[in-house]
Amino acid sequence: MSSLQRVAHVGASGFIGTAVLHALLDNNLDVTVLARKDSESKFPGHVKVVRIDFSDRSSLVESLRGYDAVVSKVGVRAINSQYEMIDAAVEAGVKRFIPSEYGCDITISKTANLPAYKERLDIKNYLQSKAETPETGFSYTTISTSILVEAVVGGPLPDIQPRARTATIYDGGDVPVSMTPASLVGEAVAAVLQHPEQTRNRSVLIHGGAFTQNQFLSIVQRCVGADGWQVNRQDTSEMEERSWKAYEKTPKDVLSWLPGFVRLGLFGKGYGGDFTGRTANEELGLKTISLRDLDALIERLVSS
Predict the structure, then answer these.
(1) Which of 67, 101, 159, 272 could link 105 by a cystine bridge, Cβ 3.0 to 4.6 Å?
(2) Would the pLDDT of 75 be above 90?
(3) What are 40-70's pLDDT values in tens digits?
(4) Distance of alpha carbon 13 from its chain centroid, rounded?
(5) Residue 199 and residue 285 in contact, taking contact as beta carbons nearer than 8 Å
(6) Has keyword Nucleotide-binding (predicted)?
(7) CB within 8 Å of 39: residues ≥ 6 apart
(8) 1 part of a folded domain
(9) Do residue 73 and residue 140 come from a single domain?
């Protein structure tokens, strides 16, 4: 199978979706953004955008015809909308589906059993079932990237707030965990599409490198000053207990338990937060980053 050139990108306006869109364009892939009809998201003028009703099955199928791949980066609350996308992609003859994943390694059973990752695991299993019918030519790739550097510094996973000078550090903060710049997430998606046979029907792990939380905090403090910080140090075992209690009490109150389980999957012992020795970076021609690179990236983030 040659490179998957024609790509339909869903969820291109979000935090990661934007980085993925830029990487696909930079790698000269033929990209079309599929957006909801009522979406107010804006895209650069040179980007082809098709606004559709995702609830209309026939419209979705027709919108996907002729595409080699679908790249999804829908938000947490829209994860289950991917079932309709997958079915439509199969019917439309799409060759590859990359679901909204980009987080922890759910091939590790301890991580997969956390409620935070159940929907993603179910999506992966559904993709596997669809890929088992060879005559359709349909396949999938899931991409895990662990912690996004940009998400930690005042982003969606705000454990370090430079302006407020507050930080939360888990389990002492000296255990290496994988961290990945958003730009590398985008490059990983492009690389998967350019290496279709190597990445067919498999889970791919990518990271920038493995660093400790204390290293990360030290860089931020160097950038903004080390005085006046309030550092909250937490034990993930206690966080796990609180999260399970919240989940069992009010499972529909997602925000009461989801953040704890996400952090447990990233920082907890035995959850595989450090991808070292298991990544496909070298196989796909993706560079890692050094501590100096991380320092430079954090400095840019803090200054902006």
Answers:
(1) 272
(2) no
(3) 888 888 999 999 999 999 999 999 999 999 9
(4) 14
(5) no
(6) no
(7) 13, 51
(8) no
(9) yes
